Amino acid sequence: MKKLLRILFTLFILLLVVVGVAFFVLNKKLPEGKAGLAAEQLADKMLKAINIEAWNKVQFLEWDFPGGHHHLWDRNRNLVEVKWDNHRALIHPNIGTGSVYTDGKLEEGVAKKTLVEKAIHLFQNDSFWLIAYTKIKDPGTTRKIVELEEGNQGLLVTYTSGGVTPGDSYLWLLSDDGRPYAWQMWVDLIPLGGMELTWEDWRVLPNGALLAPSHKAPFFSVDILNVQVGNSLQELGHDSNTFAKILN
User: What share of the chain is helix, strand, coil (3-state, %, to 5)?
Assistant: First the structure.
């Protein structure tokens, strides 16, 4: 028994050493970059590449996010239906209010407040993974151009306010035409600085907007499914009164 414990302890120490070395090697310092006209021009090039004009005209957006999250977003009124587990939430993300049903029963009190906050968090996170490239000029953002080792340039976007974790930074890696193919992240929730994930599987939505629903890292991926855009709730197969409960 003591021998087994010694072996397990040794393996544990070795694991800690491996993790520590990997963190030291892979952890990247946030690049400084340079703000100014060149950064704004690169941002404009990126927005043109993903057809921001078409994205701005999307009225309704629906998708499935890993973990069993389903979202239906009325972008004109900024109303969202979020479904996960046995919950269905109707929320106003901007003002932090909404209604939540659990197994069809309307929640009240503390349970309602907790679940509304959960739904808003899910929406903010999941929608960012879907269309982060459309939000590089949102209020509260700064942009800097970064000279990369490969000889090309990246766009460093920092969110100084809003969202789930203000202060997060993302370095967009761009193709020659301005379309992003990956980003590196410096975010509060991930201790490893500069973790890189791809933006791939590019496709053109019916209205001309460009979408990249697949994001891959060496050991995991984030794949967003069943993305649909429409001009009405009915076009996406939903009742026109879907959000009536939170409009009264």
Answer: 30, 35, 35
Instruction: Show the tokens assigned to 219.
Output: 């050991």
Q: Which helix (H) or strand (E) holds 109?
A: helix 109-131
Q: What is the pLDDT of residues 47-79, one digit of tens each?
A: 999 999 999 999 999 999 999 999 999 999 999
Find out whether 77 and 91 touch, Cβ atoms under 8 Å. no
Q: How far apart are CA 117 and CA 123, in angstroms?
A: 10
Q: Summarize pLDDT for 139-161 with one digit per residue, the tens.
A: 999 999 999 988 899 999 999 98
Question: How far is it, in rounded angstroms, from Cα 244 to Cα 225?
Answer: 27
Q: Which two tokens stand for residue 32?
A: 């400084």
Q: pTM of the prediction?
A: 0.87
CATH of domain 33-220+228-246: 2.50.20
